Amino acid sequence: MRLHRNLCFAVIDGLHQIFNEDAYADKVVQSLLRRDKRWGSRDRGFIAETTYEIVRYKRLYGEIAAVKSPFSRDDLWRIFAVWATLKGIKLPDWKYFTETPSRKIKGRFDELSKIRVFRESIPDWMDALAVSELGERLWTNELTKLNEQADVILRVNTLKITKEKLQGLLYDEDINTEFIKGYDSALKLSERANVFRTEAFKQGFFEVQDASSQLVAAYLNVKPGMKVVDVCAGAGGKTLHLASLMQNKGQIIAMDIYESKLKKLKIRARRNGVHNVDMRVIDSTKPIKKLHNKADRVLIDAPCSGLGVLRRNPDSKWKLQPEFIDKIKSVQQDCLEQYSKMVKSGGQMVYATCSVLPSENNNQVDNFLNSESGKAFTFVKDNKVFAHKSGYDGFYMALLTKQ
Ligand SMILES: C[S@@+](CC[C@H](N)C(=O)[O-])C[C@H]1O[C@@H](n2cnc3c(N)ncnc32)[C@H](O)[C@@H]1O
Fold this sequence. Notes:
By secondary structure, the chain is α/β, with parallel strands linked by helices.
């Protein structure tokens, strides 16, 4: 592979924003890709994949390059040189690379690869936390998988099209996809492509949604005509799936504490041809109280550490703090306690996260079931989805019934 100067500069600029300015990697990559209209899919792929890979292995590459954050531009070029050397890419004779010690880089890599926190590039506290909750073996396997690039998975909007028809339409736009066994509405891209540009996307025939995430709405046993509350709806990935499963019949009340997220959901609902969603901002306890004992189904897709989706958000490794995880756990317990009150007698509730930590998942459900508000509920089943076992994101979902 030959390195092109303007593409490498884009990567360095992106890394500077992500590492030094706390910007989100996905937003940074999106904006880098808009920089030059002449860039083709290979150029865009280089920028996105290189940036993500260096973010993923920041600790390892930084250690080999002997640089410490905050990184100067020279430091970032050193990190880049480590990445390129380990990839076996011949470094051009640019000034940034004149002193690159290629042999030393490979030697340091071999040494550091023996230690998990360097090999898999993860902060010590995060590694220790996960080991204490999951055990050494499970965590080592999971972490390795969470460092791989994720597949692009689509969820077919069955309100508008069948999986087979969508596959044909995408094929006509040069995008090959595969069915995934066990995931009814999923199509996996055989090769990465910018699906948002397709006519099929503009027509609302699909949403991009990981296969594990597609299990959550299905776990809630919704039926057309029901009253369903999606209480941490965000921009509505699962709300839209619920609407498809309910064939647009009945009522979904999508709630979130952020109005800006619900506004995005509104746009997506329109594109998806979804008509049965009402949006309500949780700005006091009132909108929740109004729904006490009213819902056939409640989905709590709780805010969490996101440790199950590190493949998509590798920068979380460097942005998350232990205090945040502690705080989010109390929000999760609060969500279970407050929002469970909306379930009517005989109704059901799903509690879900995109974390793999038991303390955010089954332990939270156990705590809830042992609490005063949880007394009315019985545990039906749960699904602990690990990336290294399923091949998709790490997730958790539990189904509870109210007597
Ligand atoms: C995991 S995300 C939801 C993702 C969304 N369900 C989807 O499928 O696209 C969690 C959401 O919970 C919201 N949230 C955080 N604290 C909340 C609270 N106390 N009550 C309700 N929603 C909350 C966040 O704004 C965020 O949108």
